[in-house]
Write a structure and sequence with these properties.
heterodimer; A: mainly beta; four-stranded antiparallel sheet; 10 strands; globular; B: mainly beta; seven-stranded mixed sheet; 11 strands; 0% helix
């Protein structure tokens, strides 16, 4: 199985800050990486697919980059509604494993 | 509009069996993979397995192989996740998810609302 490792596990930031979350795959996955946002008590929401494509309806302050084994999710200017947990998921080969999550908290 | 609607919360005893469901609508159910994701209390997302309803091709994570069974009834556009003998450690929220009308490699664009399974004596 491909292991997905996110860093950091948690991060504190303020409204307006720029935040970057990284995700590393244990082997190359081309660009088959998705990013999700999950708020407490809610189902995850797809933000980014194919490493850098913005899902319809997702604000443009979210962006993704990377290929191969190293990927990043960047939020350019944090808004109050962005405080949540973020997960990466590889979609290159079954099982489509998730990272362990990054909790984004208000400083 | 693509929708995945899951069955309601369940409270079971250890050793009991259970089958939960996920009904898809608004897209061609038989043409797109539908998967199951576990989230234990306070923990992250775990990919359990996935089924292609068109031909019932099913893939499991090694962590869940033999522990659960995934199936689908394409005549009623419904996928299932079942256990033959529940354990307390199966207590979790279970989500179904699909790419809907998109390529699976684009991730799960659509999610059910979740089914909370509680296993307690």
């Amino acid at each position: 199985d491909i292991q997905m490792t996110q860093s950091p596990s948690s991060v504190s930031a303020s409204v307006g800050d720029r935040v970057t979350i990284t995700c590393r795959a244990s082997q190359g996955i081309s660009s088959w990486l998705a990013w999700y946002q999950q708020k407490p008590g809610k189902a995850p929401k797809l933000l980014i697919y194919a490493a850098s494509s913005l899902q319809s309806g997702v604000p443009s302050r979210f962006s993704g980059s990377g290929s191969g084994t190293d990927f990043t999710l960047t939020i350019s200017s944090l808004q109050p509604e962005d405080f949540a947990t973020y997960y990466c998921q590889q979609a290159n080969s079954f099982p489509h494993t998730f990272g362990q999550g990054t909790k984004l908290e208000i400083k | 509009e693509v929708q995945l609607v899951q069955s309601g919360a369940e409270v079971k005893k250890p050793g009991e069996s259970l089958k939960i469901s996920c009904k898809g609508s608004g897209y061609s159910f038989t043409s797109y993979w539908i998967g199951w994701v576990r989230q234990m209390p306070g923990k992250g997302l775990e990919w359990m397995g996935i089924i292609y309803p068109g031909d019932s091709d099913t893939r499991y994570s090694p962590s869940f192989q033999g522990q659960v069974t995934i199936s689908a009834d394409k005549s009623i556009s419904t996928a299932y996740l079942q256990w033959s003998s529940l354990k307390a450690s199966d207590t979790a929220m279970y989500y179904c998810a699909s790419s809907g009308g998109e390529w699976l490699r684009f991730g799960f664009g659509y999610w059910g609302q979740g089914t909370l399974v509680t296993v307690s004596s």
